[in-house]
Design a protein that fits this description.
Helix content is about 25%, strand content about 20%. With about 120 residues, the chain is α/β, with parallel strands linked by helices. The strands form 2 sheets. It has a 3-stranded parallel β-sheet, with helices on one face. The chain has a two-stranded antiparallel ribbon with strand order 3-4. Strand 3 and strand 4 form a beta hairpin. Helix 1 runs parallel beside helix 2. The radius of gyration is 21 Å and the shape is elongated.
Length: about 120
């Protein structure tokens, strides 16, 4: 950006998920002590967390987001059509969660473990 003489009138656009939004937001916050950024999140997490509130951060080997800044985007554009790509994964995701999640403790309600430790339909 410096080599191409981008100035304070430059506006960055973050099109992507939460990681992209965090990285572009951090660059916008630190370049020339802050330039405008527009967030266009494409993932659910990006829409509900990363693009809102101006919190930016970069992961390092020392931890998650130890380097960051608060830098409000000038605009946030959310298009729910980006989430349509999730529809085909929901069933697979639910099946993975159902088999990976710990079984509920049914001893408390007196029913015991009625299905071998797996969640039944509608219980998750």
């Amino acid at each position: 950006m410096l080599e191409n003489h981008f100035g304070r009138d430059t506006c960055l656009v973050a099109l992507g998920g939460g990681v992209v939004g965090d990285l572009v937001g951090f660059v916008a916050a630190t370049y020339m002590r802050g330039i405008p950024v527009v967030q266009i999140p494409t993932s659910l997490l990006g829409m509900v967390d990363a693009a809102i509130g101006g919190k930016t951060g970069v992961d390092t080997v020392h931890g998650k987001n130890p380097i960051g800044a608060f830098h409000q985007p000038v605009r946030v554009y959310i298009h729910l059509g980006f989430l349509m790509t999730l529809v085909r994964h929901i069933k697979q995701f639910n099946n993975k969660i159902r088999h990976a999640a710990p079984a509920p403790n049914r001893q408390r309600d007196g029913r015991g473990d009625q299905n071998g430790g797996h969640f039944g339909r509608g219980e998750l």
